[in-house]
Amino acid sequence: MIQNERRARSSGPDVLIVDDEDDIRELLELSLLRLGLASDGAATLAEARSLLAEKRYRLCLTDMRLPDGDGLELVRHIAASISDLPVAVITAFGSMDNAVTALKAGAFDYLSKPVSIDQLRALVKSVFSVRGKDEDACRKDTSSLIGESPAMVQVRSLIEKLSRSQAPVFISGESGSGKERAARMIHELGPRSAAPFVAVNCGAIPENLMESEFFGARKGAFTGADSDREGFFQAAHGGTLFLDEVGDLPLPMQVKLLRAIQEKKFRRLGDTTETAVDVRILSATHQNLKAMVEAARFRQDLFYRLNVIELRMPALRERSEDIPALAEILLARLAESSGMEVARLADDAVRALAGYSFPGNVRELENILERALALSSGSLIHADDLLLDPADMGDSSHATPTTPGGADLQDYLDEVERHAIEDALEKSGGNRTAAARALGVTFRSLRYRLERLGMKE
In this structure, are strands 275-276 and 309-312 parallel, antiparallel, or unpaired? Predict the structure, then answer.
């Protein structure tokens, strides 16, 4: 009967099922038929290789244990010879090490035994969305990650590859280097782009609220829970959950997170049953997670589950040739938001920025340019307008810029600017045009400064 149904649907997408247990192969074939997919079965690694040589498939499902080898050999064989064929491994309950190893070797995703129809449906949907979007993905770009330096070209290339997988990705890099932007690009270029992208700052959630924030809660689960509420996992269902600053998670929450990721299920507070969830996990931190593992501050098993593939975002000082293009785009964005004329950098400003170490990376560059716009008297920004900290010129110091008194430099400059404006307004009797003239700036520039400093009234 199965053979007849397969022949009747032979024009549909083809799946290769590799498992030495007849009942599992038959169950998977029937489940795929319900999803409108025809499939072939192989009981050994040799049979699978023979079928792959004869026929072109659109998905391969393989068990990890086979009579003449293991599924990992098949994953590597396909990655080397049929790189556009997605492979998903089927792992026994509790065998997550095998799943992680397969993902590192190039597997698209994994399924845990016993395989549920919901898990299979989610996997199939992801696979064929990827294949259907291949051309669209090629037409898309990663222009929000600006720069033509070798480091950024490599980052964009890797992001496009990662978008076609469902493997967890760990994004490392210093603060301000664009880790969340990279995560959003992985999501937007992949098959989950139409589903939610939920970004979570793990360091900003009080420890006593973490479980309810991540997994949700039933009405009455705790004092103040006056209605059912969904958590981050449920909100990201079908899409991507981005865990920023994951190193800030306390150890008890790390245990709960690990289980939810491995089993693809979670339990809301106050609930008696588990809920299946389909999310792709991306994570990031500026901390050294390996050192945290060695110091027993981060679980090793969670680290290896999150760090299946690592994407390192380069520091801005490692790609200084990208600074002029970045500055041009940031200045245009600042001008648009403030209604000011688009400013540009003088040659001495470009040289100064090229020699600066940028401990705050791209985020700091934006802050520097915003401050320079407020301090410059025209549309041409010179090196003196940048007010770069001499301590960070020509070295890789990561110290936060401060005043001699120890206060934050930006706060200090804002306070100086605020006093100067207040003094000019007082002397002009509140006449902003006269105050702008006394300060040597345009009325529009003064208005921008007032808004930035919260001095509208």
Answer: unpaired
* pLDDT tens per residue, range 180-191: 999 999 999 888
pLDDT tens digit sequence for 102-111: 888 888 888 8
116-140: string of b/e by CB count within 10 Å (b at 16+)?
Answer: eeebbebbbebbbebbebeeebeee
198-201 long-range contacts (CB < 8 A, ≥24 apart) are: 198/232, 198/235, 198/236, 198/239, 198/240, 198/241, 198/242, 199/242, 199/244, 200/232, 200/241, 200/242, 200/243, 200/244, 201/244, 201/245
Q: What is the pLDDT of residues 206-245, one digit of tens each?
A: 988 899 899 988 876 666 666 778 899 999 999 999 999 9
CA 62, chain centre distance (Å): 28
> How many other CB atoms are there within 10 angstroms of residue 5's CB atom?
12
Which tokens belong to 440?
Answer: 């040597």
For residue 10, the model assigns a pLDDT of 41
Identity at 72, one-letter amino acid code: L
Q: What SS3 class is residue 34? A: helix
Tokens of 150: 């070798």
Phi/psi at 180 (nearest 5 deg)?
A: -70, -35
- pLDDT level of residue 145 (50, 70, 90 thresholds): confident
> How do beta strands 109-112 and 169-172 pair?
unpaired
Distance CA(417)–CA(191), nearest Å, equals 48
Calculate the CA 349 to chain-centre distance: 32
Instruction: Give the distance from CA 315 to its chain's centroid.
Output: 17
Q: Which two tokens stand for residue 397?
A: 């110091």
Tell me phi and psi for residue 274, to 5 degrees. Answer: -95, 155
Delineate the domains of the chain, giving CATH numbers in brackets: 2-132 (3.40.50.2300), 144-312 (3.40.50.300), 316-452 (1.10.8.60)
Contacts for 435-444 with beta carbons within 8 Å, 24 or more apart?
A: 440/377, 441/377, 444/339, 444/340
- Least Cα distance to 399 among 351, 354, 365, 358 occurs for 358
Query: What are the tens digits of pLDDT across the range 275-285?
Result: 889 999 999 99
